[in-house]
Each structure stands twice: as structure tokens, then as C-alpha cells.
Design goal:
single chain; 69 residues; mainly alpha; 2 helices; 83% helix
Length: 69
Amino acid sequence: MSSTTKTVLLILGLLAAIFILMQLVMGQLILSGRVNLIKAHQHSGYTTVVLVIVYLVASLRAIIAVPTK
């Protein structure tokens, strides 16, 4: 696997983790009464789903590309 692929996967993975944590925090804030965050939570949720799917597809392609011994 090339260093560029590793770097891209690392960045995508970190972004996905950050977005998932943001979803958790925003959900907790909404439950505690900050209802003005509902729309932001919905839109960032869509972004999180797309980012995680892109990361998963890229990771699986990289794993499949590695030759077996």
C-alpha cells in the first residue's frame, strides 16, 4: 500500500471519528434542551454518514488490493 493511500485513509478515518463524536455531543446537547441544534445535527449527520461510507469503501478497496501470501 502506498504512503499516499495510507495518508488518505488515516485522514478519512480521523475525520469520521471526529464527526461521530460531534454527533454524540450534539445529540446530548439537544436532549439537554438545546433544540436550536436539531437542524445542524441533521445536516452534520448526513455528512457523517457519507464520510463513514467513503472511508469504509476506501479501506475495503485497500485491503482487497493487498496481495495474499
